[in-house]
Write a structure and sequence with these properties.
Layout (H helix, E strand, L loop, with lengths): L11 H13 L4 E10 L7 E2 L3 H9 L5 H10 L4 H8 L6 E4 L5 E2 L6 E6 H6 L1 H24 L5 E3 L8 H14 L3 E2 L2 H7 L9 H5 L4 H11 L5 E3 L5 H17 L6 E4 L4 H14 L6 E4 L5 H9 L6 E4 L1 H4 L8 E9 L2 E2 L14 E7 L5 E8 L7 E2 L2 E5 L2 E2 L6 H13 L3 H4 L8 E4 L1 H13 L1
Parallel strand pairs: 6-7, 6-11, 8-9, 9-10, 10-11, 15-19
Antiparallel strand pairs: 1-5, 1-12, 2-4, 3-5, 3-17, 12-13, 14-15, 14-16, 17-18
Helix pairs in contact: 1-4, 2-6, 3-4, 6-7, 6-13, 7-15, 10-11, 11-12
């Protein structure tokens, strides 16, 4: 059993609320929306990701017999609640922004409309899936913008916060524009190109560094990429040059060398010179080693002769901003608009739509958040994706979502492409929505 697929992967209060709803007969339709209250520091936008996993979760929503038995043994839940859970199936509707869409604070990216117990129960897992992949896709998009069009590879699995996080980070980063991943399972599950070289241990296991390179090339004749900073980076580059003629006789071409430590720009310039003078101009240089978008910007600006980058820990954990101030809040119940008024956490009531306006150069201009039933102009960003618990269309290919993400990044105005958030995007709350909020407040 996959522990991430069970309904019990939730907070206890979801189940205790379900019991209260069931016992009180509160089965009317509820509307919940997922949104982000504010951007993390130095962020100017976010990129939606994780919708496909949410839809999978909703379609497969079940409580297994062994789970029901365990819940009963806890003594916390009534017979009526257990009977409800035994027959639980998600029967609601979902509207959402397509994955790869750039969005901003207070804009719902997903709306669930379903009987109240259902819509409530799925909160934790929906937030878990959307929060993480959106967080990673947004971080990866910053690296893509900083990377100057050079290929970026996800190397973060070993320091990810668990297996699912590592796998979904590979997906989210590829969606955002990375060229591939080192995570093999992501290649099988999502058809993401996989990349890999060797570890320092491979070199250390050999008495001679040059022999280590030869053995690796013989084992991987189509992927002769050598890690050259185990001992002396430039000396290792010379060894690669010396080995190349022998490999060429065997039909093996030196594909690249990898730098993983030290002053990457300085080493890259020295190694590039060694490779070029050694008749290996086709051999590329891959750089890794605790890279993030700021280091990528510095290396690109300095014109370091690096052909591609492997980005790991900083991206896979979103190290500088490891969480989103996101929420999944009740906006309507039984046709009655709902609004949370907690200090610093107030919400806008009712079912909402987001309309995007574009400038004359087709870049983003501003967004308007308004009520679904209010007239709006521009590009509506939320669309129906599930009705009565079933998807409306088959899951899109990840390559299609990746193309959308690339288009969205290309449409960002220059003020939002910087790694610093100096000019916040214009997000407008429509007058009808403001009027509705006032009316709801007056009824409390």
């Amino acid at each position: 059993m996959n522990p991430c697929s069970t309904v019990l992967l939730t907070d206890l209060y979801q189940l205790t609320m379900v019991q209260a709803y069931v016992e009180q007969g509160m089965m009317d339709s509820a509307v919940f929306e997922f949104f982000v209250r504010r951007l993390p520091a130095q962020r100017s936008f976010l990129m939606a990701a994780g919708l496909e996993q949410v839809l999978d979760f909703l379609e497969q929503l079940r409580v297994r017999p062994d789970e029901l038995k365990w819940l009963e043994q806890t003594g916390r839940f009534s017979r009526s609640c257990l009977d409800y859970l035994e027959n639980l199936r998600f029967s609601g509707d979902v509207h959402a922004m397509q994955e790869g869409t750039v969005f901003f604070p207070n804009e719902p990216i997903l709306r669930v409309t379903a009987p109240l117990p259902q819509a409530q129960l799925v909160e934790t897992r929906i937030m878990n899936l959307l929060n993480f992949q959106t967080l990673i896709a947004s971080k990866a998009a910053r690296s893509v913008l900083a990377g100057g069009g050079k290929p970026l590879i996800d190397f973060g699995l070993r320091r990810a916060h668990g297996a699912e996080a590592g796998l979904l980070a590979a997906r989210a980063s590829y969606l955002a524009g990375f060229a591939g991943t080192s995570t093999v399972l992501a290649g099988m599950e999502y058809d993401i190109p996989i990349y890999g070289t060797m570890a320092h241990s491979f070199v250390q296991a050999h008495k001679d560094e040059k022999i280590a390179f030869e053995h690796f090339a013989l084992a991987q004749p189509k992927n002769a990429v050598f890690l050259i900073d185990t001992y002396d980076t430039e000396a290792a580059a010379h060894k690669v040059v010396a080995l190349a003629p022998r490999l060429k006789q065997l039909g093996i071409v030196v594909k690249a060398v990898r730098l993983d430590s030290g002053d990457l720009a300085d080493h890259a310039r020295k190694v590039r010179r060694i490779l070029d003078e050694g008749d290996l101009p086709q051999a590329q240089i891959l750089a890794s080693g605790n890279l993030d978008e700021y280091q990528l910007r510095r290396l690109i600006a300095g014109e370091a002769p690096i052909d591609s980058f492997a980005v790991g820990t900083a991206m896979t954990t979103s190290a500088d901003a490891p969480s989103l101030d996101c929420a999944y809040k009740l906006q309507e119940y039984a046709g009655r608009p709902c609004r949370k008024r907690s200090e610093g956490k107030a919400t806008w009531p009712g079912r909402k739509q987001v309309y995007r306006q574009y400038r004359h150069d087709e870049r983003f201009d501003y967004d308007t958040v308004t009520m679904v039933q209010a007239p709006g102009t521009g590009d509506p960003l939320l669309h129906p994706v599930m009705t009565k618990g079933r998807r409306l269309i088959p899951p899109p290919k990840l390559t299609e979502l990746r193309e959308r993400a690339a288009t969205q990044l290309a449409l960002l105005p220059d003020s939002l492409r910087s790694l610093e958030c100096n000019h916040p995007y214009d997000i407008r709350i429509s007058q009808p929505l403001q009027d509705l909020a006032l009316a709801v407040d007056q009824c409390v």
